[in-house]
Amino acid sequence: MPGCQHGTCHQPWQCICHTGWAGKFCDKDEHICTTQTPCRNGGQCVYDGGGEYHCVCPPGFRGRDCERKAGPCEQAGSPCRNGGQCQDDQGFALNFTCRCLAGFVGARCEVNVDDCLMRPCANGATCLDGINRFSCLCPEGFSGRFCTINLDDCASRPCQRGARCRDRVHDFDCLCPSGYGGKTCELILPIPDPATTADIRGPCHRACPSQRGGGSAAHLSEGGGAEARGGAGCI
Q1: Cα–Cα distance list, 172 to 56, 149, 157, 218, 222 (Å)
Q2: Is 202 within a domain?
């Protein structure tokens, strides 16, 4: 704590001030209006006692010491929007300027910057513009701030029968072992009947036995039958 600046210490934290000084620490000049003339721009100083004063400012000026001029900012009636700060060199500038908060631009900070302009969201996501920020509305199968993370559809282990799962976009494939089928290999495939799998094209799909002495082979005719080279029929 400071001591008595223009006085003597009578008791701890109690100052006896010299003539012309006041305040808890004797730091307030009782003659400030005559010795220092704190009011600027033609303002009139009025002593309030106890070392305090106030200024009566002329038209067009304001502030504790009449230091601020009623310039373009005041005349325009707080022209800056969206939290922007009006600046006019304490009223002495010819025109005002607006200092905008992050996310806004324009002469009066009236334009919200489109944070989706650079298309930050991936994989067809919808970009939602905010104030100095954006968010991505991800399509099914993707997540993350920019929707760049493909969700693992195999994480729940959907494939049965020990099948291997292959992840896709919002989908999966199961590589089923032999004898099983279905989306998750849940189906047991029927065992093929040998009778239905026998060759039904007839005996002439094979080469005819070699003819004695000729060795000719049969071939399919355009009509679906078979003829042996040399005119012999296929037996």
Answers
A1: 80, 16, 10, 50, 47
A2: no
- 49 in a domain, yes or no? yes
Cβ 112 vs Cβ 134: under 8 Å: no
Domain's final residue, options 53, 68, 83: 68
Burial of 184 (0-12, 13-18, 19+ CB in 10 A): middle
> What is residue 120's three-state secondary structure?
coil
Residues 50 and 17 in one domain: yes
CB 196 within 8 A of CB 187: no
Beta strand segments in 142-188, E: 142-143, 149-150, 164-168, 171-175, 180-181, 187-188
Give the range of the structural domain holding residue 81, as residue numbers without chain letter: 71-113
> What's 31's domain CATH number?
2.10.25.10
pLDDT (tens, 9 = 90+) of the chain, 235 residues, equals 467 877 777 776 678 787 777 777 787 777 778 778 889 888 999 988 777 889 999 888 888 899 888 888 888 888 999 999 999 988 888 899 999 999 999 999 999 999 999 999 999 999 999 999 999 999 999 999 999 999 999 999 999 999 999 999 999 999 999 999 999 999 999 987 776 655 555 554 444 444 444 444 333 333 444 444 444 444 4
Query: pTM score > 0.70 for this model?
Result: no
